[in-house]
Amino acid sequence: MRMSSLLSPGVVLAMLTLGSGCSQSAPPPAQPTAEAKPAAEPARNQELNQAIQQPLDKARGVEAQVLDEAAKKREEIDAQSE
After folding, report:
1. What is the pTM of this model?
2. CB contact at 8 A, 30 and 38
């Protein structure tokens, strides 16, 4: 008796499909071309530099105000403790 007569055609097809998928390796990931990579890196570096620099610039912009507020709070606390 043949095995296919015991199993439904859908099961046989699924077994064949799964079996053939395991033996095939996935294609290697596409490598960026040498021409595209150098052009993308300066733009990426600039974006990273801006992402780092913007919070620093913002902090420097409010630094004097924060220090003034801290000095006022310190004076208030000192006045209350006297």
Report:
1. 0.39
2. no
Run of H or E residues at 11: helix 9-23
As a whole number of Å, the end-to-end CA separation of the chain is 103
Domain count, the chain: 1
User: Is 14 part of any domain?
Assistant: no
- Measuring CA to CA, which residue among 63, 16, 60 is closest to residue 8? 16
CA 80 from chain centre, in angstroms, equals 49
pLDDT in tens, 24-33: 566 677 776 6
The Cβ-side half-sphere exposure at 21, using a 13 Å CA radius, reads 6
